[in-house]
Design brief:
By secondary structure, the chain is mostly helical. About 75% of the residues lie in helices and about 0% in strands. α1 packs antiparallel against α2 and α3 runs antiparallel to α4.
């Protein structure tokens, strides 16, 4: 009985993991951080609790995206949670705008569009990173199963 059988190779990283991790790490993580840094350097930004919280969330998205790209199952779950939280907050804020009677109709329609887009992306991220084919990549283990 061979106690050290050759371990199967890790499944190749799915193309969707590569694309989504890089895309959301950049657009939902790095860009908001760089934008806030630019505002602060120009003297236009104010440090408020909401700003700090949103920058903290953007930082978590960056770290989760890097980990998800590298194959960490914990980071995959973190990316799902942080992105869904960010999308939900954005959608909620846009829906709050729509109840403002002073908001022009064209801007109200745009706010509904942003809220729908955030819901769409939350569904895409959840669907893709919870698919069995994607989970197979993350749950790969280098350890052989116990006999």
């Amino acid at each position: 009985m061979d106690l050290n059988p050759e371990k199967p190779p890790r499944p190749e990283r799915p193309l969707g993991v590569t694309i989504l991790a890089i895309w959301f790490g950049f657009t939902n993580g790095l860009l908001p951080i760089f934008g806030a840094i630019g505002l602060f350097l120009r003297g236009e930004g104010q440090v408020r609790l909401g700003t700090v919280a949103s920058l903290g969330l953007a930082g978590l998205i960056v770290f989760a995206a890097i980990g998800a790209f590298r194959g960490s199952d914990f980071s995959r779950l973190g990316l799902i949670i942080t992105l869904t939280l960010q999308f939900s907050i954005t959608a909620f804020n846009q829906l709050l705008l729509t109840v403002n009677p002073a908001l022009p109709q064209d801007q109200r329609l745009a706010a509904y569009g942003v809220a729908l887009r955030m819901g769409f992306w939350a569904l895409v991220v959840s669907w893709y990173f919870l698919r069995s084919q994607t989970i197979r990549f993350y749950r790969y283990t280098r350890h052989s199963p116990s006999p």
